[in-house]
Each structure stands twice: as C-alpha cells, then as structure tokens.
Fold this protein.
Amino acid sequence: MHPTVDASTLIVVPCCCAKASGGTNVAMQGPLATSLSDTAYTQLRGARRSVLAGIQSEPALLTDAFTKNRTLANGPDFGDHANSGRYLHALERYTGNLYAVPG
C-alpha cells in the first residue's frame, strides 16, 4: 500500500556529497508518476518548476560552490520536454556514504 500524499505532505530527499556523472538524455518514468494521483504528481512537478526558477533567478545560487546549478535543465521531471538533462536511476547516481550499502 502506498502512503497517502496530499498538499500537506513534504517529501525531503537528503543531499548526497558524491554523485556519479553520465546518464542518458531520456528520462525514465519516475516511480512517483505512477504512485501518486495525477493531481498530486502535477502539483509536485509545479513545485519542482518553482524551485528551479528560484535557483535560476538567484545569482548566489549560480556561482562559487553552486556553479553546477547553471546546467540544471527543465526536463520531464519538471513537466517540460527538454532533453538536455542526464538521467540515471538514483541507486546509480548517488554514491555518497548516505546511500552506500554495507558489503
């Protein structure tokens, strides 16, 4: 059974200090797209677009340690059709200790 997700739900994904590079420019169907209602998933993509717009409009988030933010693309995971992003499954992308499995 899937958890109940509505407008009062906050989903937090911890940052990972290390990420693998590479990937394909074809976005994979995210599990949330099929786990959430169409309304909830549309709201999630809208929130993602708002965060992306906020990052792209804030100079402090585009320089120094944050220069990688300049390459963020408004792709399918944001509800758009751009295909300049590089997608990997999270288990392949995140390589930091937080996501490591012992052994």
